[in-house]
């Protein structure tokens, strides 16, 4: 672990403010926030800015939640981010992803054209930082311009987050 979670005795008003846009007051503590947020709050200003952006992707995005979670899980898989994977398997199941779909995305396989285009978009952005014309056209069949924009930023955000998680050595949370 390169960057450990902030110790409980160092949580202050700046940390509380950083988390206030994402977590209710009762979860703004080292035990309830989880290892990722407890690590990120070592830099409260960055955390607040990141969470504001991430909050849009999670709660205000035009991208349907099921497709968001499909993309995030593929990102987590590609980046070998166990922390991100565990959190988003749970979230994916909450929005309708089945074990079969989750197993398929690990292999880069999907049962319908839109899901397959989402997986291709993740892989292409991670490999070359651009979605191919063919994949963009496939996405355009079902997603409007704003949804496609939200998809690109979702993939980029969670790719960056996976890199941070992996680099900082954030350990998966213990099951409660």
UniProtKB/TrEMBL annotation:
Signal peptide: none annotated. Keywords: Oxidoreductase, Peroxidase. It comes from the Bacteria. Residues 44-126 form the Carboxymuconolactone decarboxylase-like domain. Pfam families: CMD. One of its GO terms (molecular function) is peroxiredoxin activity. PANTHER family: 4-CARBOXYMUCONOLACTONE DECARBOXYLASE FAMILY PROTEIN (AFU_ORTHOLOGUE AFUA_6G11590), CARBOXYMUCONOLACTONE DECARBOXYLASE-LIKE DOMAIN-CONTAINING PROTEIN. This is Alkylhydroperoxidase family enzyme.
